[in-house]
Please model this.
Amino acid sequence: MQKRLLYIIFVLPLLVTGCLKDINPSDSLDTGTLTGTEEGLRQALNGAYALFKDHVSFNGTVDGNNMYLRQYFQLSDFAADDIVCAQTTTDPLYYSFSLDHTATQTNSRYFWYISYKIINDVNTVIASAEAIPDPNDNTRQLIGECYFLRAFCHFNLVRLFARPYSHDPASDGIVLRTSTSDPAQKPRSSVAEVYASVVADAEKGAELMAQPRGVQFASREAAWALLSRAYLYEEKNDSAIFYADKVIGSSRFTLETAASFPQLFANATAGKETIFCVAFTPADDYGKAGSIASMLYSDGNSGWGEEFASRSLRDTMSAHPEDVRWSYIVPLKDGGGNLQKKNGIEIYYISKFSFQGGSPTLSSPIMFRLAEMYLNKAEAAAKQDDMNTALDNVDEIRKNRGLENALYNRQLPAGKSALDIVLKERRIELAFEGHRSYDVYRNKRNMNRAYWGYHLPGLKESDINLAAAPAGYANMTVPWDAARIIYYIPIDEVQTNRLCDQNP
Model:
């Protein structure tokens, strides 16, 4: 793996990321290594972007399974109902399916660690940039990208390790790191304080960024998209709509059509609706050893292919086989056309992280795209009792996914609310992209996982008829206020940062 940036190594008695003392410090930026020039800032910032996809040394070793984006998607999506676990595994990803979390599981520990490393690096770039007198537009763009990345990382941390804002904004959030001078010993900020910081950083980033470098880098529109998402989670619906409209009205993006949507995720950097993605190159194709796709797809040799599109999601989509979003759900059939099974579970591979350049294990994962902005606007409108606006925006998506003959046309199906319709559309449109668990729990809805899979520890393969399972079987239905809809703060943090309280 090529280094994107030359670093110096230094040792601190206690890392600002709060790692255990037996974890070696990773390569770190220092303001002394940056020249304070535009080129120096650009190289340093590119190094921060690389941390989203690199396998960084943690606990003294480099593990191919440890990658920000791999954990980002698995910690989110494997805990929801769109992906089914087809077998037990020693990989800590299994804890997301079973909800049997621990403070010592490697995947959540690494995600915490690498998130704060990215935050520390962009804080260092920001501090160095302060020495540049009268920065030009290019430099301001780079500084703005730093503010965006800090906001993005803090936002993802608070979603995974703290309760949703809609549950209790005063509850414990995460440790905010907004300066290189922050003390190592620092308590968790409240959820409301974290959101305020995310919003402030995204707004600052949007103000500074006016020289877009391509969708593989942050931009003003990416900051607006983050603001729309954050405000939606806060249920500040006017603001969610305002920023969604700014992205939609920017004229930089258009929705993919039914003809082009099946190619979007394999060609993310050139996609018409991609706002921000993490760009992978052929040199970043990790194959079976740690790629995002390795657990979700296999051509027989390319990946493990052990986690599939769930029956629950497929049932939700079943009324419309013409929906082009089915193109990312790939049934495995034998030569006779018979659907294959693994441990009694039908094999429907997921290909949203495959086929860039034809490789089954390569993609450039999309973090923000235009379709989400229409759905953010639809959800916010539904919560304002503006049914027409909500359904109009849902239909804008559907008519570009092959469902021109199945539009709502401002008519609610019997027994359904506008919010029901929007959340169903979000589930189908944004499936496997790291949204589902947050969409369910922040709306105070229970997660129904009543289908056969290894998210149900102890249930036998032969007991596929879940009606035969004991009433209230663990993890079949997850209440929205359950303790384990979020993860424990990693042990590294609570053992070294004595001011950081653990989740109950």
